[in-house]
Amino acid sequence: RTSRSCSHVQPRRTMSTSFLEAAVLRAADVQAAPRAADAQAAPDLTILSWNILAQRWADKCFADGEYPLATAHDILWSNRCPRIVAELLASTADVILLQEVDAAAFNELLPKLTGYDGLHQKGNTHPCNATFWKPRLSLVWAQHRSRTLSTVLHDGQAKASVAIVNCHLEGCPSASLKRVQQLQSALEGVRHAGSLQAPHASLVLAGDFNSTAEGAVAAYLSFGSVPQGTREAWGLAGSTAVPDEACAVAAHAYQLQSVYGLDDPRAFSFAPSGRSGWHGLLDHVWYDGRHLRCVSRRQLVASEAHLDALLTMGMPSAASPSDHLPCGATLRWSGDAATAACAPACAAPTDSSPTPEQLLAEAAELLANALPSEALRAEWVSVTTPPPPCKGKPPAEALAAIAAQRARKEDLLAQASPEARAMLLRVQSLQKEARKAASRPTAEQQRAKQQATQAKVQKKAAAKAADIAGWCFAPLDIAELASAAQEAVDDHWLWHRAGRQSGKTPLEPMPSSATKAAGLHVTVLLRVHECGARLRAACAAAQQPATLTVSDVFVERVERITDEEVWCVGLAFASPAIRALRDAWLAPLPREEWPTHCPYAGEGHASLAYVRGEYRDAAERRLAPIRARLVGAAITLPHVVFQDPRHGLCEQIPLGRQARSGSVRQDYRFVAILDFEKTCERDAVLSPQEIIEVPTLLLDLSSEAPRLVSEFHEHVRPTRHPQLSAFCTELTGITQAQIDAAAPLSTVMDRHVAWLERHGALADGRNVLFVTCGDYDLKRSLAEDPNVDHDALPACYGRWCNLKRAFAAHRGKKRQPAGMAEMLDALGLPLEGQHHSGIDDCRNLARVVRSLLAQGWKVAPTGQRAASAGGVTCMSESGCSSV
Q1: What is the per-residue pLDDT across 299-358, written as a single tens digit (0 to 9) for each?
Q2: Using an 8 Å Cβ cutoff, are 734 and 677 in contact?
Q3: Is 53 found in the same domain as 163?
Q4: Catalytic site residue 784?
Q5: Catalytic residue among 168, 284, 306, 836
Q6: Which of the following is catalytic: 232, 530, 677, 711?
Q7: Which structural domain range is residue 626 located in?
Q8: Which residues are registered as beta bridge partners of 864?
Q9: Is there a catalytic annotation at residue 810?
């Protein structure tokens, strides 16, 4: 992201044109040929790409004045996210490519994009790219680079695979060289994968290129390399020639075409300052025209009115929830896509790649033209030939020689004319490419490897999107059992795994909401293939809750470690319920195709320590009395957690049909989880305290599993204490700017009522029940606020379920938990987000509610306000009430 100034601010006005109108696809300047009459014709592939503006950049750019026309309301993620989701769903695109998606946004978007699977780019250095696809497509291969996320998706209906490169290239206007290098690296990765791991018929590149249609990136994609004289103009004072090094970047052999060309000079996808600042087309879609053709492209703006609103109001604004506009296209397979997908020549342009001899011959010809002297040519070859590789750090003499070699090369470049310098840079690039080509497998070797992996790739691509690979564990608290066995293992016996300080498993339970987390857990299903619907069905039919009994304290050889002898100390569990679950899950498969259930005996195991081979007998002797004490100990298992770390998937699956909310007849269709936040001081009590945040999650209990219907989240402008304290901001995360831009409580509550009504929660008097963490929210906070017309509120606002009280009653405890954190801890769930952020607290409370519903909890009110005197009636557990 780069800073741009604005000298004139246009007055804001209301946006009358719906933003969703921009989802209409048109065939402007693209000939939409009629589809072939063949009923087996491959379906079209629709692509949508959008930089959705990461919240961290939105806040920073707004604070720095880079969005001069935006208001605080325009910047809030809670206001932008619903519009983004609505736009994405309205597009019905087969593949959605998003840029500037941080991990929190991805986790929020994925469940809301119903009908899509998704992949988030690895890395936490900056907001990343994310790719989503419909179920007819399945992920075959992925590559994560700093600025691109490349995938190969197999289209089960078209019987062809396509490589998709999701780009967010370097943002500095003058960094044309970096952008070209980033593209070249991504294309080389896709080409290499196409020849070996993931054959594909065609290629699509899309995203935020941070370059216009006439810049270096477009030239590289269109011509295969950057021609001399190419200039960059966007965001700069005038145009600037691209560096000579960009012209020397290794060429590609794809035949790429752009969806958005130069036919409309007014076209833009980026206009943060409206018409008063720079605006242009930075977002693009390119495709390989050999097996794909464009039949229509997405209209960037819906109408002249929409165009005028964008230029008047800037971006983000009511006209756009991001500072970029989405772009996209409908692509159609041409020719026999299925045949193309299997042909090595179409998997990537490998057969047309020059040989090392051809590259060196071209380099020699250029070198002869650049340097007339034979001595200079020999010297150039000498200073550009890398030294032979050596193990470890090179000695000081070698480092000095490399530095001298580099300095002499720079001298030769400085002495050459501009034309000769460009040729020398190209020579260096060709020499490097020749060395790479010489180290690559031969065509025969590539074909042999491709044939060996083709069956595996096709089988993987044909699997349903839900049937992915992973493993299941039980998030149980077995620290007391585990510590007894661990304490018997001396520290000097331990085998230390690379990168770990201890050979013992930490006794903290593994969280059931994050992939790749470390901690204590019981593995119950290992190497789960084709889990999908079959695994869920087996869990639904399983005994609930399942019982696990310690069957052994084992010392077993770790077979996966082959270079040394390592033994695992752990607990083995027996469980008829888990055995039945495994058999039901694997029943449709032939016995010989059953994957390995567990490397150790029993229906589950917990690995506690890893011991070197010479201490195995000592460990056996030390553990004998502990084994006698622990065998027979029983624990219950209400659910399992399925993880697929490669795809960032983590899902909690309850056991037993009666564990689902749909199996318990609920008196209410909806629960509305609510948690107000109020003005506060660190060392004083404000009077009155005023509500400043109204968050609510609406869950539908009518389906087999509770379904999130919608989220309501608005801040409130207080009237008695309009200035927030620093303590309040620190505690809740609510800023003064958010409060200043908010509406008063009466307006927010009117919207809250309308929101419930819009989703059918007010259809009758017992359609919704509020769930709160205590009685205070509806008993005191809302009831005592003078800014609300209580008589105008529906009756449901006077009835609620105190989740702390219900939690204790459901678990047979007399003492209520102190708060949300204690309930989460009791369920083995980590706290997510910021505690005392109202919306984050609601989401955490929803996880508690889901867990209780999975255990057969029936939702019921625990308190209500008496209509006559305004008192509070508390419900007893038997259903009788006492005032």
Answers
A1: 998 888 888 889 999 999 988 999 999 999 999 998 655 444 433 333 333 444 678 888
A2: yes
A3: yes
A4: no
A5: 836
A6: 677
A7: 466-656
A8: 799, 873
A9: no
